[in-house]
Every structure is written in C-alpha cells, then in structure tokens.
Design a protein that fits this description.
The chain is of the alpha/beta class and about 280 residues long. The chain has an 8-stranded parallel beta sheet. The radius of gyration is 18 Å and the shape is globular.
Length: about 280
C-alpha cells in the first residue's frame, strides 16, 4: 500500500512512455507509487501510430494520464509518406495535449550499421519530412510539440525556427550547452530535464539547470529510461520525478514547493488543453 504525504509538493511527469511493455506487469502499482510521490499528472508520449493510439487509450482510462501523439524520428522508415491525416484524427481527442515526440535524430545513421551515404541522406530526408508534417499539423490545431533531438541540434532548431510564434517546442531530455539553451529560449521554446541531472557525470546538465529561468523548463522521467540516482540502471517510472525535483531545487536554491508551483504553471501554459 502506498500513502500520500499531506502537503507534498505537486509535480507532473511531462514525458513518459507508459504504453511500453515494461510497465504492463505492475501498471497499477506504478500509478500508485506516482500518486504517493505527489506526481499528479503524467504524459504518455507516442513514438508511432500504434504507440500514439495506446497513449490515447491510457488517457481515456486513467484521469491522471494525458496523451502526446506523434512519430519519433528514429522510426521514420516505417512511417507513411504522409502522417498528417492520421495525426489530425488523433489530436481531436480532448486528452491529446501536444504533438510528438518529433524531431531529428542523427545518432545512429544507417552508415553506422553497414549502410551507405545515400542511405543516410534518405534517412535524414524522411526525418525532416515527418518533422515538417507534424509541425504543420501543430499550427493547424493550436498545439505545441515535444521535440526529440540527438546529434542533430542545429538542423532541428533550424527547422523549428520558421514556426516560432506559431508553435512552441519543449526540447525534452535536455543535455546541451547553456549557449544552445539560450538559442531555444530565444525562439520561445522550452526545455525539460530528466534523471540525468542527478548523475555524478551530469554536471553539465546541472549547469544548464542553473542557467534556465524558473519559468522556462519542465520535469520529466523519459521512463522507462534514465532512472535517477539512487535508482540508476533500473526501470524508470513517474514516481522518480520526486528525486529529479529534489536535485533541481537544490541547484536552483529554491524550495520544492516553489519548484512545484513554477514547473506546474509552465506545463499548464505549454499544454493548453489542460486548462480547457
């Protein structure tokens, strides 16, 4: 049994992959632990059409879960030529609060696994096409985007820039320099921080946290990945936002209560359908 401590600060897990099979055996316990840790809202992030549909199904079943729907850049070779019709249908659901995760990922190009330079070019082209389609739908429906970028920062930012003022992005699992942080903030977008902030070798993340204005970031687990200390190497879950928040509050020299107010306010502004 899990007990909620009265007056515990309230936090959101703004990026979780709750549809993944890792959670199936003990899903009810995962939700109970999240509640006991003060995590009142969780956002299940789609990575392709099936994953997005499962995220919507979870949001329908559980009041504390919301869905983000989209197509991950690493899976674009399996994507339809035009994802927009399916995406337009998904975003009609009242608990779909953003589009994503979408963006660009050059970390494992086909050439790293025996492919050619032409294969790399095709892969990047398809990523850019799917990213563009999701940005276009975001403008149409008035939703913001959850942005994935890995080894592709300049291209990702360049593709998002023309949408500044129409779409905001949250660069999830942010692990870049303060200079790149400022480039993101300059176009009206945000960042979110994961359990990496607690790692011994995560000083660069803590430096970025220190430089991020209090109203320009959110908290996430990216579970089942990136469990924070003291759970590093284990399956992540939404309850672990508590450990992430404790480290970030220390870096920002503020109370957990002040961090709760700031990050929840930022999330409510970024995900407009939460306020509907």
């Amino acid at each position: 049994m899990y007990f909620v401590v009265e007056n515990m600060p309230d936090f959101f897990d703004t990026h979780a992959h709750l549809d993944y099979p890792e959670f199936a055996p003990d899903f009810s316990d995962v939700l109970a632990r999240a509640q006991a840790a003060g995590i009142s809202k969780m956002f299940s992030i789609g990575t392709n059409l099936g994953s997005s549909q499962r995220a919507v199904a979870l949001a329908e079943k559980f009041p504390q879960i919301y869905a983000v729907v989209g197509w991950h850049p690493s899976d674009v070779l399996e994507a339809p030529a035009d994802f927009r019709p399916a995406l337009r249908e998904l975003v009609k659901h009242p608990k779909v609060v953003a589009i994503g995760e979408t963006g660009l990922d050059y970390y494992r190009l086909p050439s790293t696994n025996g492919g050619s330079a032409d294969d790399d070019a095709h892969y990047k082209k398809r990523q850019a096409e799917l990213f563009q389609q999701q940005l276009e739908v975001a403008v149409e429906v008035g939703l913001n985007c959850v942005i994935h970028q890995r080894a592709s920062f300049d291209d990702t930012l360049a593709q998002l820039k023309p949408f500044a003022g129409k779409v905001r992005g949250v660069f999830h699992c942010f692990g870049e320099s303060v200079e790149r942080l400022n480039q993101i903030l300059a176009i009206g977008s945000l960042v979110s921080y994961t359990g990496i902030v607690t790692f011994k070798n995560g000083q660069n993340i803590r430096d970025a946290v220190a430089a991020t204005p209090l109203d320009k970031f959110m908290l996430e687990t990216d579970c089942p990945y990136l469990a924070p200390v003291p759970y590093r190497g284990k399956r992540g879950e939404p309850a672990f936002v508590k450990e992430i928040s404790e480290t970030i509050a220390q870096v920002k020299l503020i109370s957990p209560e002040a961090l709760s107010v700031a990050t929840c306010k930022t999330a409510l502004e970024f995900f407009p359908k939460l306020r509907a």
